[in-house]
Structures are given as C-alpha cells and as structure tokens.
Specification:
By secondary structure, the chain is α/β, with parallel strands linked by helices. It has 3 domains: about 290 residues, Glucose-6-phosphate isomerase like protein, domain 1 (Rossmann fold), CATH 3.40.50.10490; about 170 residues, Glucose-6-phosphate isomerase like protein, domain 1 (Rossmann fold, 3-Layer(aba) Sandwich), CATH 3.40.50.10490; about 30 residues, no CATH class. About 45% of the residues lie in helices and about 10% in strands. The strands form 2 sheets. A 6-stranded mixed beta sheet has the order 1-2-11-10-8-9, with helices on both faces. A 5-stranded parallel beta sheet has the order 4-3-5-6-7, with helices on both faces. It is globular. The two termini are about 45 Å apart.
C-alpha cells in the first residue's frame, strides 16, 4: 500500500524466477523443518496469570523454503509493510479511496491512546447495558433476534455458534437474509414477550436490515407487546439515524466510523455475542485477539505468523496459479468459519486495481471455501487428493475436546485431521492409475489448545492480519468494497422502474412479476 512500484516489480520478478521444490525435497533438506516452520502465539489463561494457552500454526507442509522466504521478505520491504503496519495501528489513512483509518485493532487495545480510550469507553457502555439486561432492567429477556447483514451478521453468527454450545445466557438468533423464511424461523423459536431485537447496521440505512427490522417490530406488536420500539437495541456507526428511526439513545450502542463492517465483531456489533456469553467471556475473546495483535506488531518477516500465512497465500495464488484456498475446521464449533472468512478475505482483497488506482499485475484474492471435518472428507476431499486442481488447504482443530462423550470421538477427529494433511503431502503410488495419489499437495495446520473465547478471538485477529498483510504485499486497499454497490443500485432501479435494462433482465423481471 505504501511501497514503490519499481521495487515491488523487481521483488516479484525475483520470486517468479525461483525454482519450485517439492515438499519431500524441502523436508529432506531441512531436518528440523517442523520446528523451523511452526509458530506459536500464547496468551494468559486469566489476566495476570502465569499459566498460558495458545495457538500453534504449522507451515511446514507448504512449499516455502529458505529461498522463497528470503524473496518474500525482500518483497515485504519493497511493499513498505513496516510503514503500512505502523499506519494501521497508528491511526493513519490505510483506506485511501475513502480517506479513512482502520481502527478495529483499537477495539481490543491495539491502537493510539485516543483510539483505545474511545474503544474502552464504548465497550464499558455496552457492558453496562448487557449486565443491566441480565439483571432484568428490561424485564425478562430469554431471546434476542439479531438483525444485520454482511459483517454485522457473519461474525456474530460464528461467535455465538462457536461459544454457546454449553451455555447461552440469552438465546440469540442471527437473521441476515431478506428472504422472509429466515425471519419466520427466528419468530418460531422465540417468545415475543421475552425477546429483544438487536438491530445492527453501520449506516442504519441497509435495505435488507431495515426491512427485516420493520417486520420484527410488527411481529412484536401483533403478539401483544405494548412497546415494540422499546425492545430494540441499535448497533451502529450512525447513532443519530438510529435515534431518528425511533430507538431511545440509551439503547444505542455506537462504534467508530473507522471500523469496517467485516472487522467489527469486537465492537458493539458483538453485542449479541456478549449478551449470549456474558461480558467476562467477551473480554476473554478480546484478550485472545490482543495477543495476536501484539505478535503481529512485534514480529518481523518470517517470524510473523500472519505475514508468513500471507507469504503462503501469495506463493500459491501468484506463483503457482491456485485460484482457491480451502479451510476445514475439524471442530463442529467452527463450522461457520469458512462463511466468515469468505467475506473477510474476498470482500477485502477481491480487487482489480492497486491502492493508487493502477491495474493490478496479477491475481488478488483466491476464492475461499471449505467445510467441517470429518464431513468434508466424504464430500470434497476426492478432488483435493486426486483432482487436477492444486488447492492449498488450512486445517483448524482444538487439542481439547468440546464434548463430554467417550474420548474416542475427539481422538478419531484429530487423527483424521492430521492424517489428511499427511496424505495430501505424501500421496501414494500405484500400478492402478485410479488408485494413485500424486501427493505434494500443501496444507497449513492450526492447533488451538482449546476452542474457548480467547482462542476464538485469536483466530479471528489472525485472519484479519493475514488479510491485511496480503493486501500490502499486492499493493491494494483491503478496506473498501465498492464492488458490492452496483448490484444494490440496480435493484433500486428495478424497484423504481427507472432503469434501462438488457433484454434478458427485462424478460426475467416479467417472469418474476417485477415488470
């Protein structure tokens, strides 16, 4: 984002000139490769505690050798990564097309003093409201329907699904789709007399969100709730618009305009998460994220785990022509993680111009996709092992089980996770071509000590920084998303009947009853 074009061009030319080594050759030439290519990020089990938990990331099964790593470190310098990272945490303009900083790090204590102070004040305000609700200040609250879309829904949905398997203080249902079936499903699961509506919209103008909100208020009124508006909590960067819409200012939880939607989970957008798990657990989530922030800020080059992940991403996308990256969580609690990462990575880095507006000189974000193990092994792994595509894979697992059943369940789960990475790398020869495996297929493995709130926060922050690092290495802006606007504008033209549409769209409008 702040690098010079000539230096970056030269760095990429050096990278493209490197030979491609097989994984077998890399392991044969580096006896201590697993140790050299593994990173661990740790955090206190409790604030002030000497006991630590953490996350291990093993990059040894990627094709990154010393030559490639040295070349990527040269690219890092040419791209101005250090300055870009300083700008990110120092409140500089890292979103040049909109003239904004990106202050999501400050939400967990990583930013300028002023940004962190503001974030702590907003967190305290949210905490007071959460605790008041838990203590009955708004009457009996058993359910919450959280309405949002994009970053206002994907992060909360993932966090609630991951962290409330054992206990939810409030039963939260996240609704994003404008399809009324989604909202009706939430209605059926909730008692209107004990339900809050958490309305999340950065601008408080999002069509899908505001339409769903109106229907939710009607549902409350139709079911005998005297003051439906009094059940609404607004989560927004436009508090004045929320008050204008009818939400009492005491139930408006703002977040800074400089926090992008897909980076907003740790802001008041996380209110439904805090309502479900409690503020103590929410703060544990912040602490895990802060540990990754601290590592990302301090570590240089290949020692920096999110940056090393970006090296692997760039290697496979730009040097090996890989168009997709697969993510498989071997933990039921993280089954929504691929959905979350799709937005984070593809909306951030799915660009065709650099931060200065010039055409990019290579592919940007790969298509992120995935599933949950071991289900995916019986669905898509055939292609990974024997298909013609080279697809880098991320495996994510927890060392501690999340269930109380026979330990055999978790042991089999972990064995399968590790076996898949080993099989992708090793392959297998056979006289029967249909039973032959090419091998030399890459993977990265994430192992958290336990899939608790802190580890969850660490995983999210890791991928935020991985996304940012990728953007810097490509010289693009990860913080705007103008590509989502055109379809919205055309939808409004269809609604108004003002657009000049192609014959196909006109015929479809007529068939759908929109003509």
């Amino acid at each position: 984002m702040s690098g010079t074009g000539e230096a970056m061009t030269a760095a990429w030319a050096s990278l493209r000139a490197l030979p491609h080594h097989t994984l077998a050759d890399l392991f044969a030439g580096q006896a201590d490769r697993p140790a050299v290519m593994t990173r661990r990020i740790a955090w206190p089990v409790e604030p002030g505690s000497a006991a630590e938990a953490g996350m291990l990331v093993d990059f040894s099964k990627t094709h990154l050798g010393d030559e490639a790593l040295a070349a990527f470190e040269a690219l890092t310098e040419a791209a101005g990564f250090g300055a870009a990272r300083n700008a990110l945490f120092g409140g500089g303009i890292v979103n040049p097309t909109e003239g904004r900083a990106a202050t999501h790090g400050a939400l967990r204590g990583s930013g300028t003093d002023a940004q962190v102070e503001e974030a702590e004040a907003l967190l305290a305000r949210m905490g007071m409201l959460v605790e008041a609700i838990h203590e009955g200040a708004l009457g009996e609250v058993k359910h919450c329907i959280a309405i949002g879309i994009g970053g206002s829904a994907l992060g909360p949905a993932l966090a609630i699904d991951a962290l409330t398997r054992d206990l939810a203080l409030v039963d939260v249902h996240v609704v994003s789709n404008i399809d009324g079936l989604a909202l009706e499903a939430a209605f059926r699961a909730c008692d209107p007399q004990t339900t809050l509506i958490a309305l999340a919209s950065k601008t408080f103008t999002t069509t899908e969100t505001m339409t769903n909100a109106e229907s939710a208020l009607k549902w409350l009124a139709d079911n005998g709730v005297d003051d439906p508006g009094g059940r609404v909590i607004a989560l927004t960067a436009a508090p004045d618009k929320a008050v204008e819409w009818g939400v009492d200012e005491t139930r408006v939880l703002p977040f800074p305009e400089s926090v992008g939607g897909r980076y907003s989970l740790f802001s008041s957008i996380g209110f439904p998460v805090a309502l479900a798990i409690g503020m103590d657990e929410f703060r544990h989530m912040l602490a895990g994220a802060k540990a990754v922030d601290d590592h990302f800020r301090a570590a240089e080059g290949r020692a920096n785990a999110p940056l090393l992940a970006a090296y692997a991403d760039q290697y496979y996308t730009r040097l090996r022509g890989c168009q997709t990256r697969a993510v498989f969580a071997y933990d039921e609690r993280l089954k929504l993680l691929p959905d979350y990462l799709q937005q984070l990575e593809m909306e951030s880095n799915g660009k065709s111009v650099t931060a200065s507006g010039a055409p990019v000189d290579g592919p940007t974000a790969p298509v992120t996709w995935g599933g949950v193990g071991t289900d995916a092994q019986h669905a898509v792994f055939q292609l990974l092992h024997q298909g013609t595509h080279l697809i880098p894979v991320d495996f994510i697992a927890s060392i501690a089980p999340g269930d109380d059943l026979d330990p055999a369940h978790h042991r089999i789960l972990l064995m399968n996770c590790l076996a898949q990475g080993a099989a992708l790398m090793a392959g297998k020869t056979s006289d029967d071509p249909a039973r032959a495996y090419a091998g030399d297929r890459p993977s990265t493995t994430f192992l958290v000590d336990d899939c608790d709130a802190a580890a969850f926060g660490a995983l999210i922050a890791f991928h935020e920084h991985r996304t940012f690092a990728n953007a810097v290495l490509m010289g693009i802006n990860p913080f705007d998303q103008f590509g989502v606007e055109l379809g919205k504008a055309i939808a409004k033209q269809i609604e108004s009947g003002q657009g000049d549409f192609d014959p196909s769209t006109k015929a479809l409008m007529e068939a759908a009853g929109l003509g």
